[in-house]
Amino acid sequence: MIEWKPRRDSMTTPTRRLATLVTALAALGAACSSGPKLQLDPASREFYETARLIMTKEETKIFERLPDIEGRKEFIADFWLKRDPDPDTPKNEYREQFEARVDFVNKRFNKEGGPGYNTDRGRVYIFMGPPDKIEEFPPQPGSGFRGTLVWWSYFDHQMAVEFTDERGDGRYRITDTAGDFFGAMDLAKLGRNTRADDVFGRKFVKFQADYDAGAGEIEVRLPAKELMFRENDEGRLQIDLRFVIYIYPDEGAGKETLAEARSVAFTDAELEAMETVDFRFAKSLAPGTNYVDVLVMAPEGLHGKIRQIFEIKVDR
Predict the structure, then answer these.
(1) Alpha carbon of 73 to those of 30, 101, 254: distances in Å?
(2) Contact indicator for 165, 57 with CB cutoff of 8 Å
(3) Neighbouring C-beta atoms of residue 197, cutoff 10 Å
(4) Residue whose C-alpha is closest to residue 157's, from 123, 190, 189, 132
(5) Contact 165, 139 (CB under 8 A)
């Protein structure tokens, strides 16, 4: 288990700290943006007010381009479904947890000039939950800061965040990070399940997707070494996965959904030589920009889900 201590050298490098602050806030999403360009109905406005905190940039673009209330209603239902760690149960644990965290930060961090979810500590709490360890330190001589410095550590994610009350007025801002802060944000934003029995492990598994216009196929390439195989009756290494692919044309003409289960098996030697395990899906994409949201899930009875959104451009 890793614990982080504040790096004293960072207190004397304001340029580095400013770069960390700007990059870290960008990773938290458009939490302070003015909102979508569309005139929203009340239900969509209520959803967007807090859900924008965990939207990816691609989801924001998709949402802003939806043409009507019905399209936005469908998007909202899909938004929570994609993040549901166990869609086979009536509860959506992710949504319940998110709403509980928003309620908590609005009560706990409501004295920094706005809603708690618009504060740095509030946004990190919404993404990551309560820290495993909190450390507080008085202002350091020569730092130029008047207030307390606080570190939140998250052991499972091997990361920590430093907040500083720079002016001594009780308003804390991110001033440093340690570990894979950005990877942890990606996990949280995409609704990544990090159960101990997750077949993909607790880290952010990056994969690739492309479009073969000639064949009219979407190709998904998963890193072979990140997958969990089992030995089948023939002595080969097999993996069973479920794919759900949501396709959103840039023009806002709704969505298309493709759902398939796939199984592949290899010998030890074949798998050892592979960098990726590739899957192809027959689906023609419209000319222009398409946002392709790919969910890869463990088979029924097992837990695990990875997800990425790809912006794929098709020549007109």
Answers:
(1) 21, 23, 11
(2) no
(3) 9
(4) 132
(5) no
Q: What are the angstrom distances between the C-alpha of 269 and each of 231, 265, 273, 274? A: 14, 12, 6, 9
Burial class from Cβ neighbours inside 10 Å (0-12, 13-18, 19+) for residue 8 reads exposed
- Give the rounded distance of the alpha carbon of 274 from its chain centre: 27
Name the residue ranges covered by the structural domains of the chain.
Answer: 8-188, 208-314
pLDDT band at residue 43 under the 50/70/90 scheme: very high
| Residue at 168: amino acid letter | G
Provide the H-helix boundaries in the chain. 14-27, 42-51, 57-65, 69-83, 93-108, 120-128, 181-189, 268-272
Tokens of 209: 């997707």
Predicted TM-score of the model (pTM): 0.78
Mean pLDDT for the chain overall: 84
pLDDT score recorded for residue 196: 60
* Strands annotated E in the chain: 133-137, 149-154, 159-165, 172-179, 208-212, 217-223, 230-231, 237-249, 256-266, 276-282, 288-297, 305-314
pLDDT in tens, 48-67: 988 998 998 899 989 988 88
- pLDDT over 70 at 270, yes or no: yes
Report residue 272 as tokens: 């050892």
What is the share, in percent, of the chain residues with pLDDT greater than 90?
54
For domain 208-314, the CATH architecture is: Sandwich (2.60)
